Amino acid sequence: MSELVSTNWVYKNLTNRKLVILDCSWHMPQEKRDAKKEYDKMHIKNTYFFDIDKISDIKTNLPHMLPSQRKFEEKVRSFGINQNSLIVTYDVKGIFSSPRVWWMFKTMGHQHIAVLNGGLPDWVSNGFETETITKKDYKTGAFKATLNPEMIKDFKFIKDNTITQNSLLIDARSSGRFKGLAPEPRKELKSGHIPNSINIPFEDVLDNGKLKSKNELNSIFKSLKTENRPLVFSCGSGITACIVLLASEQILNNKTSVYDGSWTEWATLEPQ
To answer: What is the pLDDT of residues 105-147, one digit of tens each?
Structure first.
């Protein structure tokens, strides 16, 4: 299964009993939007709502951190997901938060998952059917999570890596935030960047809510073509990092992972 699928592909496979579609929409707190309420008003038919904030590690003060294997299993089984399920993630912005859930499933060992390129806007523009909230028959699945620890990095790893530079850290935030010239959305945090990291803003790999073509991505990542080190992706809180990670995997073969705590954790623990 390709990591990126089109709306036409999803439409043609709607009758596939293995297909599970997840609305993974999430909004920045300052947007004051409610993704679940938006889902209730309109979503792709037979879609389940994946709540990024709730399907997370709620024992930490950091936002939407990856949950334990057990919690992840329990939550996704409620969507009827099994080991052989074909999962498609999408969001209401085209490509924004859906790659985060794609990465979560990959980290938990599920390979049959893809991101809907263009998301709900592209689905609607093609005239495909949507629905409002309906009572769904939640048949419990038998999904079994197997965590791949190589796909997630913690503060200690990143701290050590600022010295060893065994991996290349790529920050997906805006150039202004990376350079310390623009404020962070979380007002309690300073802006700036982790030492020895580089900046590829997530907006640079997108075009009207879709990933750019491979030729365009080659231009963006051209400086990394000879980079043999593993790539670690970071952002503000682990959401948009997954967009740039997804883009990199279209053209590069490096090992990839996400710094889950991202700048929120780093700026909290390294305030100077």
So the answer is: 999 999 999 999 999 999 999 999 999 986 666 689 999 999 9
The residue among 147, 165, 199 that closes a domain is 147
Q: Which residue has the tokens 């796909």?
A: 151
- Estimate the crossing angle of helix 98-107 against helix 241-248, to 10 degrees: 70
Whether 242 sits among the annotated catalytic residues: the reply is no
Are residue 167 and residue 257 in the same domain, yes or no? yes
Catalytic residue from among 21, 81, 114, 235: 235
**CATH number reported for the structural domain that contains residue 255 in this entry:** 3.40.250.10
Average pLDDT over residues 83-90: 98
Residue 136: what pLDDT?
A: 66
Which residues does residue 233 pair with via DSSP β-bridges, in sequence order? 170, 258
Strand partners, 231: 168, 256
Closest CA to 60 of 183, 155, 158, 197: 155
Return the SS3 of 258. Answer: strand
Verdict on whether the full-model pTM lies above 0.90: yes
Last residue of a domain, one of 103, 128, 147: 147
Whether 109 and 147 have beta carbons less than 8 Å apart is answered as yes
Q: What is the pLDDT of residues 29-59, one digit of tens each?
A: 889 999 999 999 999 999 999 999 999 999 9
Coil, helix or strand at residue 5? strand
Q: Which domain holds residue 213?
A: 150-269
Buried b (16+ CB within 10 A) or exposed e, 147-157: eeeebbbebee
